[in-house]
Amino acid sequence: MKKTSTRLADGRELLYFDARDDVVRDETDSRPLEPVSTASEIRRDPLLGDRVAIASHRQGRTYHPPADACPLCPSRDGRQSEIPAADYDVAVFENRFPSLAGDSGRCEVVCFTPDHDASFADLTEEQAALVLEAWTDRTAELAELPQVEQVFCFENRGAEIGVTLGHPHGQIYGYPFTTPRTALMLRSLAEHRERTGGRNLFDDTVERELAERVRVVLEGEHWVAFVPYAAHWPYEVHLYPRRRVPDLRALDEEARTEFPQIYLELLRRFDRIFGDAEPPTPYISAWHQAPFTEGADRHEFALHLELFTVRRTSGKLKFLAGSESGMSVFINDVPPEAAARRLREVASS
User: Taking the alpha carbons of 121, 122, 126, 130 in that order, is the dihedral positive or negative?
Assistant: First the structure.
């Protein structure tokens, strides 16, 4: 893998990740861009104790452009995009409309492929492995920034999720704080350790799923995927490396090698949940990594990926209505055991 760093016309960083090490990336961005001006502000809710990013400049971000004006496609045929090269393997750049910037963190866009009409599930194992290398690299680099406390790599896929660009891509947020969801996990981790005399909550969770089997979806030598016992979403899968590590940087080579085949199979099963005649399944795919704050619980945390869809059945979405949005109490219409059974049924032949 070869990594090349360059700058866009407005000063934002652009990184190319190439599978071949002899690729030269010397294209320049000649667009007449003004320097990025952001108004991001982090405010703390005194009642809940969580934080909200106020980012009014994002109202003007690119919204559902036609395919021939996609800013994530390569620059070709006289049309310039966010990526000056005429082709690329994986590209990462600072978001032009970031939710977090400067002392408030950092936001990056990850373009998985130059093919506008593809999806992550269409990638080869070699391409998926390169994306994993990019996620790992960015986690390591952002961990060195003094304003970043936690790195979140994720993909929003589908208009139903709220995606405004159809090109296959994900994002990386470098938060200047530990996110509320992670803080809850760390609290549960500490409580479990105290209650059980030192046992690890993540280890026990994986062991339980492997013992009961009914919610296990897919297994490899180094990864296991299952629908959680108390799944919040109609179809939700958690993917864990069998050897517990705190973040992507700590994965061993065996886990890295096996990840593409496991993950691609999961994504392809998601697209078959509702039948071959249905449109692609919208989903959110989210890496949960330990925050960088040193402490006893950092290395007790377990890196894992959570994949879920907002579609509950053919043509129907799971909306976050009164109980979910108002009180954070989810109501799931699909029993986790039934979801796991369906995800086993649609395995590749």
Answer: negative
Angle at Cα 120 formed by Cα 114 and Cα 126, nearest 5°? 80
What are the tens digits of pLDDT across the range 289-316?
999 987 768 999 999 999 999 999 999 9
Q: Is residue 4 packed enough to be buried (19+ CB in 10 Å), middle (13-18) or exposed (0-12)? A: middle
In this structure, what token pair is assigned to residue 297? 């619980």
> What is the set of active-site residues?
169
The identity of residue 228, as a single letter, is P
Structure tokens at 53: 């990013």
Please tell me the pTM assigned to this model: 0.96
Q: How far apart are CA 231 and CA 144, in angstroms?
A: 34
Tokens standing for residue 235: 């179809």
Q: Are 83 and 73 in contact (CB under 8 A)?
A: yes
8-state DSSP, 297: T
Beta bridge mates, 308: 236, 284
Q: Angle at Cα 305 formed by Cα 302 and Cα 309, nearest 5°? A: 145
Nearest to 109 by CA among 180, 168, 195: 168
The secondary structure element, H or E, covering residue 195 is helix 180-196
- Strands 2-7 and 106-111, by their bridges, are unpaired
